[in-house]
Design a protein that fits this description.
single chain; Helix Hairpins; six-stranded antiparallel beta sheet; flat
């Protein structure tokens, strides 16, 4: 799950007593996206890991790690920060932005100030080295924008513009849903928003109690969110994060990165196809013009430079120009058919990857194993990386005189719908949103229907909403959409039930 601003606030409180006023002795890069800082104070070393991995950016105290990567950015970090003293760690409001303030001795300038900014944004994260005037020296991840802020060397650092407000406990009385809290106030993840809104908790008075819910998607936070299921508690936030990233599957990171990269490529491809479509959609004008030339009575063996303002090739006869126009008409008409099909295919793949990204937090390790197989089929990963060649064990739940099957990947969805389910079994899916396919095999009663619908809602991006619409119908009314990547269906004869989870 993503780390939010309130988690970072508690993390700052945990780090300060250990590393503020400490000396920075070593800087390592255990991976391309991670940076390890060894701080030394009162005879003890502390290792602070700043990880900017696309799917799970975080920071924590951890053990010494092997230095395996090098880059110009690491060289700049060592040049400007080695042997510096860390003076303070501050957070920008409740945003996911931390500032590490250093003092270092320069051979010529004496004592100088340097800062390191750790930003965790929605689509990218930054580690930014600043001089004493907040001018960017270098950055891990760079960004240029003509109208908004840019992260580039020699530019002054500016905080990313933020529309969200500072939260006050009294504001809860005016909010209608957890979604209002999440969208309008700084520092909240969806899980924290849900807890604060539903329990009317003043988070500033909640004690730090690092907790992870092992049986509930491995949700974690600096406070106990009072969720159902097995939980594990820790003495520190760093211990929690070290545990979390040890049990989270490594493939999660690169599968999400692949999905994000594919979305960017497909959006660019769609833009180009749309532009070509606009250029070619006026193909009929060439046929009309050619017909008008034939109807004009002009000598078809003569040479003309233009006709009704349209420039002709004077080196060709009028008849040859007409044939050229008909050829252009035919070519662009065929091209339009091709472009229409390509746009449809591109939109289908966009939906496939966007649905994966939207529902990624609901995927467990076995679901990711199946997703890995799907990506192999699309040649997105090398075959030798994939060990498992068939769908993994399905997620099932007991029902009254029956079983509920939950499919979270395309392989699982097809298996439960077309191989396990019978025509009269019930199929469930959240309405108009990505999510798991759920099949109820067994007795059809209100208890089983509601439990199946709750599982469909829980395994979708809508799980934090209220009154979640879930459609259900019999398997015989499910039809697979041909030619669409992944597993998509159409259905009819459905009923809708509204669920709060």
């Amino acid at each position: 799950m993503p780390i939010d601003g309130y988690f970072l606030e508690r993390m700052v409180l945990e780090l300060k007593p250990k590393i503020v006023n400490a000396k920075l002795r070593k800087i390592k890069s255990p991976s391309k996206t991670s940076f390890l800082f060894e701080f030394y104070q009162l005879g003890q070393s502390y290792y602070l890991l700043l990880d900017l991995n696309l799917s799970s950016p975080n920071l924590r105290l951890t053990n010494d790690l092997v230095d395996s990567e090098t880059s110009n950015f690491v060289i700049h970090l060592k040049k400007h920060l080695l042997n510096a003293q860390l003076n303070d760690i501050t957070q920008y409001k409740k945003d996911r932005i931390l500032k590490f303030s250093f003092t270092v001795v320069d051979t010529f300038l004496g004592f100088v100030n340097r800062s390191l900014i750790f930003e965790v944004m929605g689509k990218s994260s930054y580690l930014i080295l600043l001089d004493e005037n907040d001018i960017i020296i270098d950055s891990y991840n760079k960004h240029f924008n003509e109208t908004k802020r840019s992260i580039l060397p020699k530019l002054i650092y500016e905080v990313f513009p933020q529309d969200k407000k500072d939260f006050n406990f009294n504001d809860l009385a005016y909010l209608l849903s957890p979604e209002d809290l999440f969208k309008n106030y700084m520092g909240f993840s969806k899980d924290l928003s849900n807890y604060i809104f539903n329990h009317k908790i003043n988070i500033d008075q909640e004690p730090t109690n690092p907790t992870i819910y092992i049986s509930n998607r491995n949700v974690f936070h600096a406070i106990d969110l009072k969720l159902t299921g097995d939980k594990k508690q820790f003495n520190t936030l760093s211990e929690l994060l070290n545990y979390y990233y040890a049990i989270e599957p490594v493939i999660q990171n690169y599968l999400l990165e692949i999905s994000n990269k594919e979305v960017k490529k497909l959006e660019s491809k769609k833009q180009k196809l749309s532009e070509d479509y606009q250029i070619n959609q006026d193909y009929d004008q060439y046929r009309v013009l050619a017909d008008e030339i034939y109807a004009s009575g002009f000598d078809l063996k003569s040479h003309y430079s233009s006709f009704k303002g349209y420039e002709l090739d004077y080196s060709m006869t009028l008849n040859e120009n007409v044939q050229k126009l008909y050829s252009k008409y035919t070519k662009q008409k065929k091209s339009l058919d091709h472009l229409t099909k390509q746009i449809e295919i591109t939109n289908n793949f966009l939906r496939y990857f966007e649905d994966i990204i939207a529902n990624f937090d609901n995927l467990g390790k076995k679901d990711l194993d199946d997703l890995e197989i799907e990506f192999e089929q699309f040649n997105l990963i090398k075959k030798e990386k994939v060990k498992k060649k068939k769908p993994s064990t399905l997620t099932t739940y007991e029902a009254k005189n029956g079983t509920i099957y939950v499919g979270k990947s395309s392989l699982q969805n097809e298996q439960i719908t077309h191989r396990i389910a019978k025509p009269n079994d019930l199929w469930f899916h959240v309405k108009d949103a990505p999510g798991a396919h759920v099949v109820l095999k067994g007795e059809v009663n209100q208890e089983n229907i509601r439990k199946s619908a709750e599982l469909a809602a829980l395994n979708s991006p809508l799980k934090h909403s209220s009154n979640i619409p879930v459609d259900y119908t019999q398997i015989k009314f499910i039809k697979k959409v041909k030619g669409h990547p992944g597993y998509y269906v159409t259905y009819s004869h459905q009923k809708t039930i509204y669920i709060n989870v």
